[in-house]
């Protein structure tokens, strides 16, 4: 598993380009917060609690486990990022390091996952749903109208990034702060209720936290689904890794801002869960199929206010998610084009065309499927391929860690010919980024100014194994038949089969592409140098 001739790549393609406004610490925190906090924290706790049959102890423990898993994943991504050049693409760069040969294969596999399944359809659909809910006061709305509003949502976001990028980043910064304030409000209300400052009937949810409702233990399947839902609710912690070329200080962002954003979101999630338990009685959480946040706000503000206020808050949350996902994934689409992993790569090297590609796929996935169960299906389809990617990355990291010297990894990464900068920090070509085929007129893609990195993080083995086991579980469990399989409009196996099939399709594309184009296809450094 050779590490490749990255130094020669760097020296052949460095160029000075026109600078642009980089993303600062707040913007990078917002990229993560906006992606993690979507609809889940307002909706998922109730079904998770039901899957666990009202066991408060397990309910809280599962969210702690979810936090441990995502922090393990964050450490793994940090180790990859700090051992490799700072550049856009996130997992793409890590996959290439793990599976460098045959050149271009893993890039094509990953590109099909990102381009075809890296859409914003789920949150666009949710945005349309809650906008109509706020306007009509009822959840029974026309799905076609929901889809139309969803198309308007993704169109607005892509147009904003295309024509007014600074305003786009300002908006997702605002929405990131707004989401945090919503969660802080829920927590504050929970504290007031716990202290007896609100005129609310106290709950007995904390009297016997390990008791199951009516003494009935949930099935292994239900417990597994609950864990699956908890882990899914934290999706988004890796978002800033996709856009490292666009940030002002990658080392600071990776080692300070990203962990801070994940820690902040994890703590807020746990505190919000506690607030729900303080205000909402166990019986209502078990019997209700509506938003748990809806029950919470109903008890505090009354039904009339909640019917309008809550859908507006959730729709803003969805908008923030669509804004950051459309931006980050379009940047990744562009990086895929720079390395010639996708058809018409010369076209999609332009950021605006990459945005249009993301818009097109999002609209098709949003409009094409049947309306029944569409939201859950889209969310699962969007998330699933990433579990196989994480399995490959984590297994690859284990190989690199077990063969550090051979693979020039970790403390063996720095070469003997490194020079010291004026401030005594290490400077090496290996630590610098490169920019293949960057257009000097493209304001969104400047070179990332090199800042020396004084330290490389080594992920503890226990964290690597936790993340590996969690992702194997996430990859395999969706193939298990649920008890209600016969009543589902969309077969339970559909999203894991489609998700896996898209990855396989990327490999098929790699092998048949030379026969279709009838010419030698070049990838990565070969394509860059051509």
UniProtKB/TrEMBL annotation:
The regions listed as transmembrane in this protein's record are: 23-44, 56-78, 104-125, 174-198, 251-278, 285-303, 309-329, 350-369, 381-400, 461-480, 492-512
Q: Does the keyword Transcription regulation apply?
A: no
Q: Where in the cell is it found?
A: Membrane
Bilayer topology reads: Multi-pass membrane protein
> One GO CC term of this entry?
membrane
The signal peptide stretch is none
Q: For this protein, what is any one GO molecular function term? A: L-amino acid transmembrane transporter activity
The alphabetical list of record keywords is: Membrane, Transmembrane, Transmembrane helix
Instruction: Tell me the protein's name.
Output: High-affinity methionine permease
Q: Which organism is this protein's natural source?
A: Candida viswanathii
- Its encoding gene is what? MUP1_0
């Amino acid at each position: 598993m050779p590490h490749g001739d990255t130094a020669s790549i760097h020296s052949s393609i460095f160029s000075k380009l026109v600078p642009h406004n980089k993303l600062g610490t707040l913007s990078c925190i917002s990229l993560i917060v906006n992606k993690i906090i979507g609809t889940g924290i307002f909706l998922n706790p109730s079904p998770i609690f039901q899957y666990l049959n009202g066991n408060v102890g397990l309910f809280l423990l599962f969210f702690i486990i979810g936090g441990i898993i995502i922090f393990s994943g964050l450490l793994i991504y940090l180790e990859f990022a700090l051992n490799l050049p700072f550049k856009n693409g996130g997992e793409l760069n890590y996959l290439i390091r793990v599976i460098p040969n045959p050149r271009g294969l893993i890039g094509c596999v990953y590109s099909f996952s990102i381009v075809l399944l890296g859409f914003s359809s789920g949150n666009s659909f949710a945005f349309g749903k809650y906008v109509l809910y706020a306007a009509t006061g009822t959840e029974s709305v026309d799905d076609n109208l929901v889809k139309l509003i969803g198309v308007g949502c993704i169109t607005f976001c892509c147009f904003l990034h295309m024509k007014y990028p600074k305003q786009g980043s300002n908006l997702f910064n605002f929405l990131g702060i707004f989401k945090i304030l919503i969660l802080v409000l829920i927590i504050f209300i929970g504290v007031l209720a716990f202290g007896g400052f609100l005129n609310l009937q106290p709950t007995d949810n904390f009297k016997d936290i390990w008791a199951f409702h009516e003494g009935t233990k949930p099935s292994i399947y239900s417990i597994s689904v609950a864990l699956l839902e908890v882990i899914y609710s934290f999706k988004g912690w890796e978002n800033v890794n996709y856009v490292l070329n666009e940030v002002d200080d990658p080392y600071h962002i990776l080692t300070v801002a990203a962990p801070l954003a994940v820690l902040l979101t994890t703590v807020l999630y746990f505190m919000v869960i506690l607030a729900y338990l303080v205000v909402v009685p166990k019986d209502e959480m078990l019997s209700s199929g509506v938003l748990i946040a809806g029950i919470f706000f109903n008890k505090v503000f009354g039904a009339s206010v909640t019917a309008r206020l809550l859908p507006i808050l959730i729709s803003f949350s969805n908008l923030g998610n669509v804004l950051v996902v459309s931006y980050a994934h379009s940047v990744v689409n562009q990086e895929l084009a720079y390395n010639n992993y996708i058809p018409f790569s010369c076209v999609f090297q332009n950021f605006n065309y990459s945005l249009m590609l993301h818009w097109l796929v999002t609209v098709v996935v949003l409009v094409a499927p049947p309306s029944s169960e569409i939201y859950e299906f889209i969310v699962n389809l969007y998330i699933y391929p990433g579990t196989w990617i994480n399995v490959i990355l984590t297994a690859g990291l284990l190989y690199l860690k077990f063969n550090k010297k051979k693979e020039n990894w970790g403390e063996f990464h720095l070469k003997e010919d490194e020079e010291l900068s004026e401030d005594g920090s290490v400077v090496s070509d290996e630590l610098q980024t490169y920019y293949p085929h960057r257009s000097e007129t493209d304001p969104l893609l400047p070179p990332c100014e090199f800042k020396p990195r004084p330290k490389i993080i080594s992920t503890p083995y226990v964290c690597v194994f936790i993340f590996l086991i969690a992702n194997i579980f996430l990859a395999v469990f969706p193939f298990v038949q649920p008890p209600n399989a016969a009543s589902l409009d969309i077969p339970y196996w559909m999203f894991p089969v489609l998700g896996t099939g898209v990855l396989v399709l990327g490999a098929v594309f790699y092998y048949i592409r030379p026969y279709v184009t009838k010419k030698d296809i070049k990838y990565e450094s070969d394509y860059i140098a051509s």
